[in-house]
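Can anyone check this?
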Amino acid sequence: MANQIPSADDLSRAFDELRKIHWGVDFSRYKAVISGPVKEVYEFEKDIHFGGQLKSRNRRKKRVGKRNLGIRRPFSISRARKHIRRLISCNSGQYPEYSDKFVTFTFAENITGLKEANEMWRKFMMRLNYHIGHALKYVSVVEFQKRGAVHYHAVFFNLPYINNDELAEIWSHGFIKINAIQHIQSIGAYVSKYLQKGVVDARLFNEKCYFTSRGLLKPITIRNPPSDLDFTCSDSIEYRLEETCILPFNKWTGWTVYKRYTRIK
C-alpha cells in the first residue's frame, strides 16, 4: 500500500495546493458579492483562481490595438454596469440625515468634447463641495444627448437640501434637475437603468464613462463560500431571492448560475 500510485484527483489536488503555497493562488467555484442590501451569488462550472497570478513560461505581451479593444469592450461595459449598480447599492441610505438625490446636469451650449466637459465637471464639484462645506459622496455617469452635447447623471448620497436655482447657479453651465429617491427598495437597480445608458455609447470607446468620489463604501467579495447557495455571511441575515439565471458560457468559467437576493428589512 505504501507504493500505491496516486489517482488523477489526488495529483490535481496536490498541484492546486502547490500553486496556492508557491504563488498565493487559490481556486473556487463560488463567489458571493455583498453590496449593501443586495447579495449576488455565482456558482461556476469550472474552478477559477484568485488571490495571486498564475505564471506561464509562454506569457505574451498584451496587444492593445483597436481590434483587441473592440473585443474587450463588451466585458468592460459589463464590469462598469455592475460596478455602478453595486456602488450605489452600497452607499444608498448610509447618511440618514440626507436623502439620496438623482441629479441631471446639462450644458446650455453644445459642448461635445469630453475633455472640456469633464474639466468643467471637476471644477463644478470643487465649487459645490466648498459651498456645501463637506466632501460630497456621489457616482456620476457621462451621457450624450441627441444633439451630441455631453450631460451628466449623478447620484448624491450626502447632499443637503438645495433648490434647483441655487444648484443651477453653482453649476453655471446650463440646466439641472433634482429628483429625490424615496420609497424605492432597490435604489441601485432603479437608478442604474438611467445611469447605464451612457456606458454603452460608442463615443465613450476607450474613455472613462463614470466618476466617483473618494471614500465610497465598496462591495464585499467572498470567495469560496459554502456550496449552499443560500450562503449569506457570518451574521444571521435573511434574504429574499429576486432573480435566478444562467449566464452566457465562456471558456474561463464555463456555465455560471447567478442568483440575486435582497435583504429583508
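Reply from J.R.: I decoded it. The CA atoms of residues 91 and 217 lie 6 Å apart.
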